[in-house]
Design goal:
heterodimer, A: Rossmann fold, Rossmann fold, 3 domains, 6-stranded mixed beta sheet, 44% helix, 14% strand, B: Rossmann fold, 4-stranded parallel beta sheet, 14 strands
Amino acid sequence: MIDILKDRQNQVFEGRKDQKFEMSCDKISAAGSVSQRACVFCGSRVVLYPIADAVHLVHGPVGCAAYTWDIRGALSSGPELHRLSFSTDLKEKDVVFGGEKKLYKVLTELIDTYHPKAAFVYGTCIVGVIGDDMDAVCRTVSREKGIDVIPVHSEGFKGTKKNGYQAACTALSNIIGTGDISGIPEASLNIMGDFNVAGETWQIKSYYKRMGVNVVASITGDGRVDEIRRAHGARLNVVQCSGSMMTLAQSMKEKYNIPFIRVSYFGIEDMSKALYEVAERLGDAAMLERTKSLVQEEVAAIMPEIRYYRTKLEGARALVYTGGAFKVFSLVRSLRTLGMKTVVAGSQTGDKEDYQQLRDLCDEDTVLLDDTNPMELAKYIQEKDVDLLIGGVKERPIAYKLGVGFCDHNHERKICLAGYSGMLNFSREVYSSVCSPVWSLMPRRRKFTGGI
Amino acid sequence: MVIADMNPVPHEAARNACHLCAPLGAGMAFAGVANTLPYLHGGQGCATYIRRYTISHFREPVDIASSSFGENATVFGGKGNLFKGLNNVIKQYHPAMIGVASTCLAETIGEDVAAQIKEFYLQSDGWCPELIFAPTPSYVGSHYDGFHRAVFATVTALARAGEKKQNINILPNMISPADIRYLREMCSDFSLEATILPDYSETLDGGSWAEYHRIPEGGTLLYDIRRMGQSAATIEFNNFLEPEVSAGNYLAKTFGVTNHRIGIPVGVAAVDEFMKLLEQYSRISIPAKYIKERGRLLDSYVDGHKYVFGKRALVFGDVDFAVSIAAFLAEIGMIPIICTAGKERNLPELIKPHMQKALEFHIFEGTDFVAMGEIADKLKPDIIIGSGKGYPLARRLQVPLIRLNFPIHDRLGGTRLRCLGYGGTQELFDRVVNGLLEKQQDDSSIGHAYL
């Protein structure tokens, strides 16, 4: 029997009738809890990572850069600078005497070698402690090299991953508004919070193109500095992964009067809703018609196969744990499309409102988790008799060890899960794990193996 | 012949670094001690990133706790976080030992972790697990240093004097779980009781579970570590570790346990040396099984010698790994291009005795993958040997990559790859020869099915 740590009792809702629902989220992980969450730096790094024509330099000892080398499945249609890992690789003498000189040299060298459109410089824990004036170094290099050199204040200890998202948004705000916006048509938007993992942004762009909507900038999937400079010329911000991008959407509303909507591109329901909302905001009756026929065509194309998977998956039970909470909503709905039930759901960075919404969406007895850990995940996999875990690589072995299927829905994956074809891929992913015959050989598993 | 090497273009940045930070190595070493939870004193991200990196290789649960520093802990000190963290770990994991390693953040703000741990130990009412501390700021050394510092800290804290016994200690360096298992098998075949530290052959490479384990089974027993000072000898698989952090040196100085520092036993000559030590301390001669393994290995060397002769192999990784593999490559007539991740004292001199058989060899220190690319463009290797992170380079050069060492994130079975002993050398030799043959076949317009 695994107990919940006292420090975490307000972050675990067990779905019991006698338990008051009040999530105490948005706080630093309890020491010793083995959180699945990383740090402020991680938040900034994941958001800015896909900008493919910028140098991303991590200012600190080597680890932070080494662990994030080519870590995301974010694709680029052109330059691939984002797939390189650059670090100032601070050593003991730099920590003692300060790392500014080294930062200057490294930046200059990288800009001369790779000729990027801009450079992002990420501050790590010890940079915040030794007091390097990153801003000053960035200003100097920017002046000398004639490109934007943008400090990202992502010192790991200064909050949670969410604070890292905000630091990334601040960095992006520095570029937005610096490009020429003449000639941008009325029906235009920015895609925000899609990171082009396995080409997902391209998938979404193709839908918008068919609808007759112009995409000004993708922030940041397959991102380009010059595109982002023009983002203030769009008529609408369409925000996915709202946890990471809301700060930017809000500031663009205040500064440029660009309205925003929150969407998700995962699952048939949410994908369609996103396209219809965009059509309503930006288009005329003709665009709405085009959108309708697009949705009908796409849905018709995938449904026969999905119906087949549904016959195999009906009644299976899932645990969903992701970085952002908004994705969980879509996954709960997508699993319903497949006849599956979400018995445990949680996120690393959800806020109170998100959890309330999740509570309303899920069943009465669904367990809800904020910033959970391996022991809790194992506990509920066992207690709730889970058949499938949806999460990232860190969660995978917990499922596999217990003979439970797994679907990677994190940024490392190489399979496109957005849009209609993405829903089909998702269904295949779920089917090929839940219905694999290997489970029948595993000591902990008894059922759900006869599907093939 | 030693080539006076031109170093790659000097550069300030680490560009696709080949080394990782010290706490990662410490975490891996601590995970090889029975019923032990690794713990990082610092920010939450370090533990999580290191877990993700390690899990992708081992494909096993790797739980590493963290003090989860926020701004308060950073400004006012992390003692409160450490105490809370240790208490939570004790409640949740019931460990026999917690292996605490520090991060750059804790070290930079000047935490006296050793004193804090002592205080925790004294104030804890009743039972408290063993608390071991290894200082591993990431701005000093690499994962290699972190690994050895954790071993050193564990041994210095736990080993006790006592009546001398016949057993031996083996400190095997960062080798694969399969290599550790084979090592155990060898010792057992020599009827030799050996304490292997660390031993993550089961903790990081175990079977499917009927129920969740708080800490995976396996690992070096604390009981055995406590008796390491009573062993007849220690065999360390490293040539280049600084003597002051060598646990073998410590055991020799403190308890008079004879220390043998040999490299990782790869290749006939190096394995022979290791076998002699096993014979010496077991007092039995080499079992027939190994004579036969050795015979088959030699026979395959003959079968394959022409395919490999004069071929250039770029081998990269930490210094002990790279040099041990390079010595094997020299033994079979290949030309090693050694790229080490760190910088050692006087390496080009130290390496000479290991390269006596080499027709030619090259050595570069402190290389990252961009530097390696520049080296490769000049020296044109036929094959690359090292971790899965060599893949982008191998792909660009269109040469085979023989995956070995840590990490392997792009293939299954990284934990089952071997290079140690006659058996492991056989596996490696076959993979190298076949890698070259496959390349030859792929490049040929004819595609012979006899080679």
